[in-house]
Specification:
The protein has about 70 residues and is mainly α. About 45% of the residues lie in helices and about 0% in strands.
Length: about 70
Protein backbone atom coordinates (compact mmCIF):
# COMPACT_ATOMS: atom_id res chain seq x y z
CA UNK A 1 0.00 0.00 0.00
CA UNK A 2 2.85 2.38 0.77
CA UNK A 3 4.36 1.70 -2.65
CA UNK A 4 1.08 2.61 -4.28
CA UNK A 5 0.81 5.89 -2.28
CA UNK A 6 4.43 6.73 -3.10
CA UNK A 7 3.87 6.13 -6.81
CA UNK A 8 0.59 8.11 -6.81
CA UNK A 9 0.99 11.03 -4.37
CA UNK A 10 -2.38 12.56 -5.29
CA UNK A 11 -4.27 9.48 -4.09
CA UNK A 12 -4.83 10.73 -0.53
CA UNK A 13 -6.04 14.25 -1.52
CA UNK A 14 -8.36 12.58 -4.05
CA UNK A 15 -9.88 10.37 -1.34
CA UNK A 16 -10.21 13.35 1.03
CA UNK A 17 -11.92 15.41 -1.68
CA UNK A 18 -14.38 12.60 -2.42
CA UNK A 19 -15.23 12.18 1.26
CA UNK A 20 -15.80 15.94 1.57
CA UNK A 21 -18.10 16.02 -1.48
CA UNK A 22 -20.12 13.06 -0.21
CA UNK A 23 -20.43 14.75 3.20
CA UNK A 24 -21.68 18.01 1.63
CA UNK A 25 -24.25 16.20 -0.53
CA UNK A 26 -25.65 14.24 2.42
CA UNK A 27 -25.73 17.38 4.57
CA UNK A 28 -27.59 19.36 1.87
CA UNK A 29 -30.14 16.58 1.32
CA UNK A 30 -30.87 16.32 5.05
CA UNK A 31 -31.21 20.12 5.37
CA UNK A 32 -33.64 20.24 2.43
CA UNK A 33 -35.83 17.59 4.04
CA UNK A 34 -35.98 19.54 7.30
CA UNK A 35 -36.81 22.83 5.54
CA UNK A 36 -39.74 21.32 3.59
CA UNK A 37 -41.94 21.32 6.67
CA UNK A 38 -44.25 23.95 5.18
CA UNK A 39 -47.38 23.27 7.26
CA UNK A 40 -46.68 25.98 9.81
CA UNK A 41 -45.22 28.55 7.45
CA UNK A 42 -47.06 31.41 5.84
CA UNK A 43 -47.65 30.77 2.19
CA UNK A 44 -50.00 29.33 -0.30
CA UNK A 45 -53.31 30.80 -1.43
CA UNK A 46 -55.70 32.17 1.16
CA UNK A 47 -59.36 31.28 0.71
CA UNK A 48 -60.35 34.92 1.13
CA UNK A 49 -58.33 35.90 -1.95
CA UNK A 50 -60.88 35.84 -4.75
CA UNK A 51 -59.16 35.79 -8.12
CA UNK A 52 -60.00 38.49 -10.62
CA UNK A 53 -61.36 36.78 -13.70
CA UNK A 54 -60.71 38.21 -17.13
CA UNK A 55 -63.99 37.28 -18.80
CA UNK A 56 -64.76 38.06 -22.43
CA UNK A 57 -67.47 40.63 -23.24
CA UNK A 58 -71.01 39.33 -22.75
CA UNK A 59 -70.00 36.70 -20.19
CA UNK A 60 -70.65 37.29 -16.52
CA UNK A 61 -70.45 35.33 -13.30
CA UNK A 62 -73.61 33.49 -12.22
CA UNK A 63 -75.88 35.48 -9.93
CA UNK A 64 -76.98 32.56 -7.81
CA UNK A 65 -75.11 29.31 -7.28
CA UNK A 66 -78.44 27.45 -7.04
CA UNK A 67 -79.50 28.01 -10.64
CA UNK A 68 -80.87 24.82 -12.17
CA UNK A 69 -78.68 23.13 -14.75
CA UNK A 70 -80.49 21.95 -17.84
CA UNK A 71 -79.00 18.89 -19.42
Amino acid sequence: MLDFIKSYPLYIPFIVLNVFIIYKVIKDVLNDEQEKNGDDEDGGVFSSDIPVLDLPPGVSLPISPKEPVLI
